[in-house]
Design goal:
By secondary structure, this protein is an alpha+beta fold. It has a single domain, classed as Sandwich (Protocatechuate 3,4-Dioxygenase, subunit A), CATH 2.60.130. It contains two helices and eight strands. The chain has a four-stranded mixed sheet with strand order 5-4-1-8, with no helix packed on it. Strand 4 and strand 5 form a beta hairpin. The longest helix has 27 residues.
Length: about 160
């Protein structure tokens, strides 16, 4: 009888070890992936003092060499903001990557190789920035159809006018 108890304990212990091992194996599996996704870049130009959107502001974009998006070679362009201070541009097939497991689902995307600044009537030009800047790129919002990169640009009133 004493031997049966000991044997039962060993069987239970073995089953528990196998169970924990299988659960750990399942939970520990992570798939790394690389792909492409369209990225809508949304520039929101606002008054630095009031936060009010600036209509008819210009966002000047210089396309730098290289980059991980399909339309990176289209050349420089200017976007005009609407009445809500918003100007958008879709960048096609940007390289995206991440990892997926039962415990995590990450997503990141390479923004286009753009240097940009904004101008507006009665405002000083903003400082040039890069879409690939980590502080900018970390704001990407994952979407089903495409990802969105919101970029805020604040303009300061030009005191010389």
């Amino acid at each position: 009888m004493r031997g049966m108890k000991r044997r039962s304990i060993w069987i239970i212990a073995f089953a528990l070890v196998v169970f924990v091992g299988l659960v750990s194996l399942f939970l520990g599996q992570t798939m790394k992936w690389v792909g492409h996704k369209d990225l809508e870049v949304r520039f929101l130009v606002t008054n630095a003092a009031t936060g009010i959107p600036i209509a008819n502001a210009s966002v000047h974009v210089t396309v730098e060499p290289g980059g991980f998006c399909e339309n990176g070679d289209q050349g420089d362009f200017v976007l005009m903001t609407d009445q809500n201070g918003l100007a958008t541009r879709m960048s096609k097939n940007c390289m995206s990557f991440g990892s997926k497991s039962s415990l995590e689902d990450t997503f990141a995307i390479h923004p286009p190789a753009w240097r940009f600044y904004a101008t507006g009537e009665g405002y000083a030009n903003s400082e040039p920035r890069f879409a690939e800047d980590v502080k900018v790129a970390r704001k990407v919002i994952r979407g089903d159809q495409y990802a969105i990169l919101p970029i805020g640009i604040q303009l300061v009133k030009d005191l010389n006018n």
